[in-house]
Amino acid sequence: MNDAASPADVEADALARVAAAASVADLDATSQAFLGKKSPFAALHRGLATLAVEGRRDRGRAIHESRSKVEQAVAERRTTLEAGERATRLEAERLDLTEVVGRPARGHRHLVTQARDDLEDVFVSMGYAVAEGPEVETDWYNFEALNMPPAHPARSMWDTLYLKLGAPESVLLRTHTSPVQIRVMESQPPPIRVVAPGRCYRRDTPDARHLPVFHQIEGLVVDRGITFGDLAGTIEAFTSAYFGESIHARLRPSYFPFTEPSAEFEVTCIFCRGAGCRVCSQSGWIELGGAGMVDPNVFAAVGIDPEEWSGFAFGFGIDRCAQVRHDLDDLRHLLTNDMRFLSQF
Ligand code: 2NL
Fold it and tell me: How far is the CA of 206 from the centre of ligand 1 (A)?
């Protein structure tokens, strides 16, 4: 250490370095360098021992004053640097509590599920119960109990998918939900008011109006004195409840093996309100499903006395209802699961 260094020189040097310290760590190092054990101030202190007593007091006071100034400068610089570093850290760790993140995206029921639920609500409000049954059925429930004995030509109305199970053509994917109604009639006595919604299967090639996997809802009413008039009124009531007050139904003669007499029913075209447009082929009506009075042979198959009881049944496509209600140009949209389509409903 240079013995010639005066307290004032060391002080000036130290104050310049303290002022230039760029961080708290830098300041700590500077402080250690000037005030620590091996620092210029420590050396000055040790130098006192070599002085004569007279000079020692003044020299000692000068060292002490310089040292105090440097210590105070260090303390002030520390306050400034710490405040700056704290501000920088707070800015870096800042959370924007005003940011609006929004709700998580929410899904909704599939269009077919919506139609099924809405139709169930309509029928429940009319006093019907909802019944379900297996999608894999036996020949008995899908055909025979419905007045279609083996090899009956009416079976060709359904393009059946058979399972390789048991005897050939004995187990199949149900072609309609009528088997559910048969099961209901087998398991409980009349009066019966029930709807059976569910998935059905036919060996169809998909196109704009057909799906090999589709959804049907069938209704069945069995009671004393049920007439074709009750059937017509029921069809009218459900169409205006589901499609709207201005929509009406009409029946046209048809044929089904399990009903006699049988009818097809149509509803007012919901697009032109009956005036005639491309959707209804200018007829003003859109075909929806079939209906009729339960054939006595069906009652016989489930042990209900057709002399005491009568009933009507009807069936139509749930997918088709959604198509008509939402003006879908192609039923295959319902199976594609393209979110751009589904999220619109
Ligand atoms: C259609 C025709 C129909 C029935 C279904 C039925 C059920 C029993 C007895 C008698 Cl247990 N009938 N169901 C009756 C007439 C028509 O559906 O075209 N559906 C899409």
Answer: 22
